[in-house]
Amino acid sequence: MTIKERxxxxxxxxxxAEDVVARLKDGFSGxxxxxxxxxxxxxxxxxxxxxxxxxxxxxxxxxxxLRLSVVLEKQGQAGxxx
Length: 82
Hints:
Helix content is 59%, strand content 5%. By secondary structure, it is mainly alpha-helical. It has one domain (3-81). It has a two-stranded antiparallel sheet with strand order 1-2. The N and C termini lie far apart (44 Å).
């Protein structure tokens, strides 16, 4: 793979990570959950070859973690029911 192709691939992966962060924020917001630190991890995008950007779900307080666990449990139960 040429340098130009690798750069294009890296840019595409960073854009995909940005998109998924936006989708996660919208989805969490739709169920009343805010993760204030939700973002792309800047360290994983540093350097000349950011081929594997990481999504940092961040930190949250106990109440938010409990709400998130309830939402996930409901999703899991819905998936098992049909």
